Amino acid sequence: MPELVVTALLAPSRLTLKLLRAFMWSLVFSAALVAAAVYGCIALTHVLCRPRRGCCGRPRRTPPACLSDPTLGEHCFLTLKSSGLRLHYVSAGRGNGPLMLFLHGFPENWFSWRYQLWEFQSHFHVVAVDLRGYGSSDAPKDVDCYTIDLLMTDIQDVILGLGYPKCILVSHDWGALLAWNFSIYYPSLVERLVVVSAAPMSVYQERRGVGPPRPRPDACLPLPLDYSLHHIGQFFRSNYVFLFQLPWLPEKLLSMSDFQILKTTLTHRKRGIPHLTPNELEAFLYDFSQPGGLTGPLNYYRNIFRNFPLAPQELATPTLLLWGEKDPYFELGLVEAISSRFVPGRLETHILPGVGHWIPQSNPKEMHQYMWAFLQDLLD
C-alpha cells in the first residue's frame, strides 16, 4: 500500500490521540493549579501559626544517630553499570541466604525498612537502597533522569551488581509502583514479590475494579485521571500528585515552616506513622532538608503521566500483597482490580483491618508474619 494512503488512513487516529492527550494534560494542569491553591493556603497557615520557623526549611547539619545504627547493617555504595550513578544502600546478612531487596516510597528513604532489616537478616541478604534522587544516592537534576524505564534499569543494575541472578523484591508506595513494573518487564530477576500499599500503573486505567482487561476508547487517561473520574474518592486522595507536576513550587510549599507539611504527613494522628519518634522523623527530614533534597523525589511524580496509555498486563510473579483497610491515599477497591490482573494462584492478598498506609513501620509484626509464611518454601 502506498505510503501516502497509509498516512491518510492513520491521520484520524493520530489526530484523535493528540486531542485526547491535550485534553488529558489540560485536566492535569487544571487540577495542579487547584491543588497549588489548596496547599498554598495550608503552607501559609503553618507559617502564620509558627512565625518563628519562617518561610524556608532549616537545613539539618548533622544526621540523627539512628541513621548510623550498626545493628541495621553496613552502609555501602554501588556504581550502576548502565548510568554510572552511585546508589547508597544498607546491607546486612550477606551469605545468609537469597537477596531480599527493599524499595522505599515517598517521603521516605532506606530507613523506612529498619524493622525488616532487623527481622530478615538472619536468613537473607537484606539490602535497603536509597533510590535515585534520595538520601546519599546520586540525584540528577534533570526531570528526564527519573523516567520509569531508567528507574527499572537501576533496580536491574543493583541486583546484578550485588552478584545475584534474582531477588525477593519487597516494596512500598513509590517503590511498589516500580516493583510492579519491574516484575512485568524483568520477570527472571524477581523470584518473589512483596508489595505494600500500591497498585500497578495499568490498573488505574480500568473503568471498573473487576473483570478482565479490555480496550476502551478512553484508555489514554492516566493515573489517577480515569480511575478517579469513575471513583471520585480516589481523585481527592491523590490530589498531591497533581501539585507535584508543577516546577519549583512544590519544593517551596513542602519546605515552608520547616517542612511542616512533610512533618504532618508522617506524624498525623490518623494518617501518619504511629509512634514515630522525633529522632526517626529527623531520619527522613535530614535528606529532604539538604539543598535540592526534594527535587529528585518530586521528579518521580513529574514523569508519571508520560507513561500512558499503558497496555493491560497480566501479572504472573508469585506476589504477596498487603493493604491497609484505612489507607488514606489508595482506595480499598484497588485490591480487587489488582486481583483481576493475576494469573490464578499467583497472588496472596491480606487486608489489615484498621491499618493505614505505612504498614512496614506501623505494623511490622503482622507484615513479618505474612512474609515468613509466604517465603517458607524458599527456606525449606
Automatic annotation (TrEMBL):
The keyword Heme does not apply. Keywords: Hydrolase, Membrane, Transmembrane, Transmembrane helix. Belongs to the AB hydrolase superfamily. Epoxide hydrolase family. The chain crosses the membrane at residues 22-44. Residues 98-359 form the AB hydrolase-1 domain. It comes from Camelus dromedarius. The keyword Hydrolase applies. This is Epoxide hydrolase 3.
